[in-house]
């Protein structure tokens, strides 16, 4: 993980001394949802996020607000030297650039990008909590994440184990990324 000499992210956000592994979750259910996720990945890639693994695209039922179109979801592992708040700012910029507008919490959206995990970091402030506190309750995150990072430990358990509590009827693989 980190050595005593490795600089950790500050609250104000700063470049880290080495790239860190992060897990990102993507979701969309308006417009061409699959294309929206692909565009979000490309947007982040062009701004220095180094993707090392992309899950398949999954069809999932809405979570939170159920009266809306099904979602397309995916997860990715990436390396970044951005501090958590800076990465959050970049993901929010991507969302706005790709057409996301303020709306109902858990409602329909062109794109949603969540930071799920940041290597070796527990983070809590008024804008961001890491690991994402809802990971263990969301099949649409656990199944794609288990595809690319089955042994990643979150909240004391490997992702593949956490994903087993949800049946395969919760999510359906649509296509490889």
UniProtKB/TrEMBL annotation:
This is 2-amino-4-hydroxy-6-hydroxymethyldihydropteridine pyrophosphokinase. Pfam families: HPPK. InterPro entries: Hppk (IPR000550), Hppk_sf (IPR035907). CDD domains: HPPK. Pathway: Cofactor biosynthesis; tetrahydrofolate biosynthesis; 2-amino-4-hydroxy-6-hydroxymethyl-7,8-dihydropteridine diphosphate from 7,8-dihydroneopterin triphosphate: step 4/4. It comes from Rhodoblastus sphagnicola. Catalyzes the transfer of pyrophosphate from adenosine triphosphate (ATP) to 6-hydroxymethyl-7,8-dihydropterin, an enzymatic step in folate biosynthesis pathway. GO terms for biological process: folic acid biosynthetic process; tetrahydrofolate biosynthetic process. Its EC number is 2.7.6.3. Belongs to the HPPK family. GO terms for molecular function: 2-amino-4-hydroxy-6-hydroxymethyldihydropteridine diphosphokinase activity; ATP binding; kinase activity. Keywords: ATP-binding, Folate biosynthesis, Kinase, Nucleotide-binding, Transferase. Residues 105-116 form the 7,8-dihydro-6-hydroxymethylpterin-pyrophosphokinase domain.
């Amino acid at each position: 993980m980190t050595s005593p000499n490795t600089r950790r992210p500050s609250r104000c956000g700063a470049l880290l001394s080495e790239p860190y592994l992060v897990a990102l979750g993507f979701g969309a259910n308006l417009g061409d949802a699959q294309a929206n996720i692909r565009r979000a990945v490309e947007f982040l890639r062009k701004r220095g996020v180094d993707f090392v693994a992309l899950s398949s695209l999954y069809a999932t039922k809405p979570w939170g607000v159920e009266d809306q179109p099904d979602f397309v979801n995916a997860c990715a592992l990436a390396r970044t030297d951005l501090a958590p708040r800076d990465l959050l700012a970049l993901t929010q910029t991507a969302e706005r650039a790709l057409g996301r507008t303020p709306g109902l919490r858990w409602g329909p959206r062109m794109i949603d990008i969540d930071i799920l995990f940041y290597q070796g970091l527990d983070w809590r402030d008024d804008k961001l909590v890491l690991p994402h506190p809802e990971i263990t309750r969301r099949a649409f995150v656990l199944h794609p994440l288990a595809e690319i990072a089955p042994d990643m430990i979150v909240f004391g358990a490997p992702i593949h184990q956490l994903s087993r509590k949800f049946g395969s009827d919760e999510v359906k693989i649509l296509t490889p990324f």
